Amino acid sequence: MYCLVLILAAAAVVGGRAAVVSRHMKLLDIDNHIDTNAVPTRRTKPFIKLIRGPAASIAHRPGTTLELTCEAVAEPAPSVHWFKNDAPVYEYDKESSEVIPTNPSSVARISSTLLVSRTEEPAHYTCLAVAGVHSARASTLVYRTDGSTESSERSKLVPLAPRILVSYKMFVDTIGSDVVVPCRARGHPRPSVSWQTSDGQDVNDDPRMKVLRSGDLVISSLRWADVGEYTCRAANLFGSTEVKTFIYPATERKAQADNEIKSSE
User: Fold this and answer.
1) Residue 59 maps to a domain
2) PROSITE patterns from the entry (predicted)?
3) Could you tell me where the DSSP H helices lie in the chain?
């Protein structure tokens, strides 16, 4: 990956934010040694790592909603796609499977949840995390426990209170990039989604930021001043929920690093 992490970590020490950045960098599950004298190193290949996946088999009790969750960290920022018996699940649950546009220079940790409202026959579910040409997957067998198979009108409308299905826990990209940070929520009725900056301000107060109908946050021309923990909140008549995403704008020094390496060869 770009030497983004080492460079941004070093910059954070100078800015007095080392502790905050270090805590959030652990979410990327990569080496996070902060060294103010760090020298940019050659870029490594893009990577992907599955951090969390569903158990090998899961019992689904009738009348309940089963949640299957996958988390992955990757460069570029990954997306997660769900499959049921090798068929894409977007037909069943569009919110959890839409593709999120990403930049090649980005790094992120994503969490994606699939809601299974009913299980008649045993089925294999697979989460596929994709980042560029790299991918990682995890599968589970979902089976129904003994009980009534009748669906009430209420169960057909689940979930009622909002659930946030797709979000980034940590996101890094280069200053000047146009970025999209996901927050895909589901509920009945459809929840409204809002975003706040780390200081509690509505993102709509900044003309460079806007919230899409999908719930995703768009930031145009990412700046260093945008660094911080952003909160996405989804709400409807039956309740509310929120997730936090730490956004880190990094300086791009790949060209400088390559020149230094070439001059030393």
Assistant:
1) yes
2) IG_LIKE
3) 4-14, 18-25, 153-156, 254-264
Provide DSSP, 37-86: TPPP-PPPPPEEEEEE---SEEEE-TTS-EEEEEEEEEESPPEEEEEETT
Dist. CA 246–CA 156, nearest whole Å: 35
- Residues 70 and 137: their CA atoms lie apart, in Å, by 9
Overall average pLDDT of the 99-122 stretch: 89
**Residue 42 φ/ψ, nearest 5 degrees:** -60, 140
Residue 115: CATH number of its domain: 2.60.40.10
> What are the backbone angles phi and psi of residue 172, rounded to the nearest 5°?
-125, 130
> Is 214 a domain residue?
yes
- CA nearest 76: which of 42, 49, 104? 104
Q: Which residues does 94 contact at the CB level (< 8 Å), separation at least 6?
A: none
pLDDT digits (tens, 9 = 90+) for 225-234: 999 999 999 9
Residue 260 lies in a domain: no
Q: Strand pairing partners for 211?
A: 217
Query: pLDDT at position 175, please?
Result: 95
Report yes or no: 47 and 4 within 8 Å, Cβ to Cβ. Answer: no
